[in-house]
Known about the structure:
Elements: E1 2-6, E2 18-21, H1 30-38, H2 58-77, E3 86-90, E4 93-98, E5 105-112, E6 120-129, H3 135-153, E7 157-161
Parallel strand pairs: 1-7, 2-6
Antiparallel strand pairs: 1-2, 3-4, 4-5, 5-6
Helix pairs in contact: 1-2
Amino acid sequence: MMRLVRIAPHPPSRKHWDVLAVPSARGDTVLEKLLEWSGLVGAAIPEQEGTAKSGADAEQKAARDMIALLRVDVPTNGPRPGTPRSRSLRDQIFEFCFGPRRGKKLRVTWFYGGPARNRTVICFATFFKREATPRGEIERASKCRRRYLMAEASGEIEVADL
């Protein structure tokens, strides 16, 4: 059984995309890590990009903007690869990216759900990185995607709300 966690408040529909996350070995999700990095643990979740307070550092701002992207923009408009915030890495693995022009950028690796989960984005990992996404992160996401597709084919996907 593969467990996924819904991190966006919108249930899937013809109008909305479902945004799910694969819990880490520790059991936390991309959203929980982003909340910790943003300084918003126990606070209101931002509902749009650019909501960081003026004194917030670049990492906190990137985390807050990524939360808004995953919880509002992607469910409403889809992931839109090929835009400044979403790009293809390789082998059906993509990343969302936020951060300053120079310096560390916040990245979330993701892939599309399989045929049984149309209009679904599966988020895998989040990290800060200055250069290109490390090959190891892409390989880990590819292995997770293969595991996901096998679990989906055998009907062994369980989705819980955060």
